[in-house]
């Protein structure tokens, strides 16, 4: 498998708090990688380091054989790395359509191509019927989808998703997972931080577990779900019982 991203021995401190402690992660091309862990375990800090929003105190980030450590976020985005954020910040007084079109324009040869990309992405995300609605008037799930639409309209090679299922009902989770599967099948490598364990276990090919800034486990979902360290640190005995019950 070809490696698209290498996080090499990355450490990040905030005062006396070690958010990432000598973390190393390899992400393979066209992989769907889940990232889980308790709140404060370093998941979003990892995304922020990868995408240039913060600089690591130690270590390197290698993307497609290029050292991008400390590179400004806009330059990393131009290389084909896109992300969503936990806190959604759409351009509230612009329509859904214009929110996405703005992100499509820099990665398109002309306005017509940008408009075509915008229509396709809004249709994929089930937002086409809401295209003329102001972003501030969307509900929480629609805003999550708009955030995702803005991330993928630029045709990224690597997509980082930070809790895109937050606030979703079970039916909405299934619908968004189906969308993510289509995005992944188009050839996009995906890293996804998520607390909805049913979703992570269903869609991820491999899972990495962080705790107190350390990688404590890595492997396929079925292995991770049974790892004693992961159960103790994050999943809990309740999830173990859920797995056992779901098999019967």
Q: Can you walk me through this structure?
A:
With 248 residues, this protein is of the alpha/beta class. The chain has 2 domains: 168 residues, Rossmann fold (3-Layer(aba) Sandwich); 67 residues, no CATH class. Helix content is 39%, strand content 25%. It is built from 9 helices and 10 strands. The strands form 2 sheets. A 6-stranded mixed sheet has the order 6-7-8-3-9-10, sandwiched between helices. The chain has a 4-stranded antiparallel sheet with strand order 2-1-4-5, with helices on one face. Helix 3 packs across helix 4 and helix 3 runs parallel beside helix 5. The radius of gyration is 18 Å and the shape is globular. It starts with a strand and ends with a helix.
List keywords for this structure.
single chain, 248 residues, alpha/beta, Rossmann fold, 6-stranded mixed β-sheet, 4-stranded antiparallel β-sheet, 9 helices, disordered C terminus
């Amino acid at each position: 498998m070809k490696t698209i991203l290498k996080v090499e021995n990355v450490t990040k401190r905030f005062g006396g708090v070690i958010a990432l402690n000598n973390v190393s992660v390899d992400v393979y091309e066209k992989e769907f990688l889940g990232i889980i862990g308790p709140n404060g375990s370093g998941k979003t800090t990892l995304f922020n380091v990868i995408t240039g929003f913060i600089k690591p105190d130690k270590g390197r980030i290698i993307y497609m054989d290029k050292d991008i450590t400390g590179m400004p976020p806009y330059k990393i985005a131009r290389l084909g790395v896109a992300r969503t954020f936990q806190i959604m910040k759409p351009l509230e007084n612009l329509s859904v359509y214009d929110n996405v079109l703005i992100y499509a324009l820099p990665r398109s040869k002309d306005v017509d191509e940008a408009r075509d990309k915008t229509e396709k992405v809004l249709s994929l995300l089930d937002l086409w019927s809401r295209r003329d609605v102001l972003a501030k008037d969307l509900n929480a799930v629609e805003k999550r989808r708009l955030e995702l639409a803005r991330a993928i309209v630029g045709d990224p090679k690597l997509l980082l998703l930070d809790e895109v299922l937050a606030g979703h009902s079970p039916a909405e989770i299934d619908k968004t997972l189906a969308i993510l599967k289509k995005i992944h099948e188009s050839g996009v490598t995906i890293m996804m931080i998520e607390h909805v364990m049913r979703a992570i276990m269903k869609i991820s090919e491999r899972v990495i577990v962080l705790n107190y800034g350390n990688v404590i486990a890595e492997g396929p979902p079925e292995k991770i779900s049974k790892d004693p360290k992961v159960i103790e640190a994050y999943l809990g005995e309740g999830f173990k019982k859920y797995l056992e019950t779901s098999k019967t």
